[in-house]
Amino acid sequence: MANWHRLANPTLFLEWSRRVRPWTGVATAALLATGVYLSLFVAPRDYQQGDAVRIMFVHVPSAWMALFAYAVMAVASAAGLIWKSPLAHLTAKAAAPIGASFTLLALATGALWGQPMWGTWWVWDARLTSVLILFFLYLGYIALWQAIDDHARAAKSAAILALVGVVNIPIIKFSVDWWNTLHQPASVLRMDGPSIHSSLLTPLLVMGAAFAGYFVVVLSIRLEREVLARQVRTLRRVQSRG
Amino acid sequence: MTVFLRIVVRDVRLAFGQGGATVLAVVFFLLTVTLFPLGIGPETGVLRRIAPGVIWVAALLAAMLSLDRLFQADLEDGSLDQLALVPLPLELVAAAKCLAHWISTGLPMLAVSPLLGVLLGLNGEAYGGLLLAMAAGTPSLSLMGGIGAALTVSVRRGGVLLSLLVLPLCVPVLVFGTGAVDSAIAGLEGGAHLPALAAILAAALPLAPWAIAGALRLNLE
Questions:
Q1: pLDDT at A181
Q2: Distance between CA atoms of B153 and A163, rounded to whole angstroms?
Q3: pLDDT value for B184
Q4: Whole-complex ipTM
Q5: Residue A63, CA distances (Å) to A102, B48, B98 in order
């Protein structure tokens, strides 16, 4: 237990992540299979929405992961700035495209769900709009990484941007909530317990866990690539000097 | 304090001088707003309805346009290194630069915004709200834009990237700024929009210079 900080060493991290990844992968696949089965065959049809309600089992976990990935990115960025850890900066970099993809998936499934339910692909509703802005924040973060050649400076600049984004997200959310909403209010995470029926909640949570597992697996693959790329860069620099 | 003022005066002079940012920003601001009636049509009712939003969006874009040289010019001619050696924390230097940016672009835009109101057929009650909202909102644009300018200082052609980074962060200013004018039009005094704009400014005032200084230090190493 006391040796967690040793994982900040990129080489040890690579070893550890390669050992853990197959198990996480298997668990994710099992969860995903269960989740898909539960949501397609076990969960009841909605008396109003029919089978369209099943889009929820992809849409809602995507939206959760869109926020979760940004949180991972922000925490990793803060850790990178505070402890000057390259691995933390690389974690943030690796998490960004995954988060952006989940955000896009949430928007796309939302549009597909909105078309039959609200009769329109897109409405300028508070939640949709804030997720769209979150997507732009991800794009800006990724673009900043790509725009700065010097790797160490890119890492720190992007980290500052991620932290500025985290401070701003609640304000953006608040401001966008100002022009009220078509979207239903939060129904799973509530003080008085979930308002959604358990026949729908169980598949939703299983899918959520599967998405989280997928995030971890892809993050570890991307992170491994980033670590290796960094080692290649260092070797090249040493070579060109010597 | 004198050093702080000197930085402000220097930047404002540069901006108001020949080829400076002020004239360009104001002309861009006027031009963008002029394009809307041409694109949408001259019906007064429609224009009056969208006027607050149009003026705010144009102000946002004009601010972005003038921001990309905020620190870049200083980095290129070496004055950024000099500014870092000034007997003043870099955070205050950053605040001075933002203040100068606001004086040289935010304030002139604030001054011409009633004219745009006239062009878009804004009615009489709206002007006070418009001026107050611009006064409370545009400083936040300079501060948040300063963060983007500092982060992209070493990026060639960083202007588009700057807009991508900063525009999403400016959404609250846009929402509350437009809301303040709209509620003034509706004759609602003391809405929550102006206090919200002031709160954003109060948060950005200490935090943004800190982030700007952090980003600038990366380019001074």
A1: 46
A2: 18
A3: 83
A4: 0.89
A5: 7, 37, 36
